[in-house]
Amino acid sequence: MSTPWFRRLAWLATGLAFCVIVLGAFVRLNDAGLGCPDWPTCYGQVTPPDDPGAIAAARQAFPGAVIEHHKAWYEMIHRYLASSLGLLIIALAVLAWRNRRRPGQPVVLPLLLVLLVSLQGALGMWTVTLLLRPVIVTLHLLMGMTTLALLAWLALGVSGFALRRAAVRNRRRLRAWGLGGLLVVAVQISLGGWTSTNYAAYQCLDFPTCQGRWWPPTDFARAFRLTAEPGVNYEGGRLDNVARVTIHWTHRLGALVTLIYLLGLGLSALRSADPGVRRVAGLVLAALVLQVSLGISNVLFALPLPVAVAHNGGAALLLLSLVAFNRRQWPYNEGREARSS
After folding, report:
1. Which of 37, 152, 161, 234 has the smallest CB count inside 10 Å?
2. What single string gives the DSSP state of each residue in 172-208?
3. How far apart are CA 152 and CA 180, in angstroms?
4. Phi and psi for 81 in degrees, rounded to 5?
5. Is the whole-model pTM more than 0.85?
6. What one-character DSSP code corresponds to residue 340?
């Protein structure tokens, strides 16, 4: 088995990844994504400029930039935490490699996470240098969620959460349910990210209708065009009302599909012979109810910041519950893990 230190670091990294995602949502919803116009420094410094001399130097180096001290700190704290997560993942990879001959020690996944977090750092840089281009910001969110999911998968596996026995009644059917649930939630998170990065959350402030209509005017071609104009600052959004309504309405339809699918998954899994599966199914249903409630609250209360940030955290919790559900379906074979290492 892996060492206690490896298990502790895996759980610590998972918790930190969750915090980074929630803080990233806070930064984005405060329009602080460009709080520092350069990367990895902030106005050429390790910390945001705060004394008159540093502010004067920053204005000279970045003419035309509006220095908002609180937004710069939001952005830099997010970068500090993300960098700490990267160091933790590197430490996991080093420990995994050193213990690669130990039975049950995962090696491939920790090394893959190093590559993933490196790409995530590059996306963080491009988020700033490409001026919040929606496709880059959305990919940055998805890569963060993927990192969280893989860290949780790793931590659950080395903690003995995965099954070690050969068979569970209805396991094959539940595997299909679980993989489908991950796909549905991944698509819905993508739609949520696209809604946020295109500033479309305010377009429909009534519920369940949108601008008083059950099916508002739509323009899917413009709403989901991935190409962007070079050199354009996308803070505040660039799309017209119809395109933004289309994005928002599609996200709502995706929420309906997610609700129906995960209700089916949860209710089906509650009949499993495995008590662990039943417990995780309860977590999936609880996270689903929480997330749907937060989404509706965002609409009814006009996107209050705490609720909007919690909605992003709820998406991460829903993803984590599905990772746990899927991890429970796949037996943990110590011999195979050891040979693959």
Report:
1. 161
2. HHHHHHHHHHHHHHHHHHHHHHHHHHTT-TTS--SSS
3. 18
4. -65, -40
5. yes
6. H
Structure tokens at 183: 């796909």
Counting every residue, how long is the chain? 341
pLDDT single digits (tens) 202-214 = 999 999 999 999 9
Segment 123-144 shows an average pLDDT of 97
Query: Within 13 Å, how many C-alpha atoms sit on residue 185's CB side?
Result: 28
Rounded Cα–Cα distance for residues 38 and 66 (Å): 13
Instruction: Render pLDDT for 232-244 as a digit per residue (tens, 0 to 9).
Output: 999 999 999 999 9
pLDDT at 1: 56
Secondary structure string (H, E, C) spanning 48-98: CCCCHHHHHHHHHHCCCCCCCHHHHHHHHHHHHHHHHHHHHHHHHHHHHHH
Looking at residue 233, its pLDDT comes to 94
Look at residue 311 and give its three-state secondary structure: helix
- Render the burial of 279-311: b for 16+ CB within 10 Å, e for the rest: ebbebbbebbebbbebbbbbbeeeeeeebbbbb
Kindly state the tokens that stand for 91: 């430490």
List the structure tokens of 204. Answer: 């429909």
214-233 per-position pLDDT tens digit: 999 999 999 999 998 888 99
Task: Round to whole Å and give the CA distance between 308 and 305.
Answer: 5
Instruction: Produce one character per residue of 259-270: b if its CB has 16 or more CB atoms within 10 Å, e if not.
Output: bebbeebbeebe
Q: Is 130 helix (H, G, I), strand (E, B) or coil?
A: coil
Q: Which of 214, 188, 203, 212 shows the shortest CA–CA distance to 311? A: 188
Lookup: tokens for 136: 């880059």
Q: Match 């290492």 to its residue by tokens.
A: 341
> Under a CB-based contact definition with an 8 Å cutoff, are residues 180 and 63 in contact?
no
Tokens of 309: 């940030």
> Residue range 65-86: average pLDDT?
96
Q: Give dist(CA 69, CA 35) in Å, integer.
A: 8
Percent of the chain residues topping a pLDDT of 70: 94
Which amino acids are annotated catalytic?
A: 75
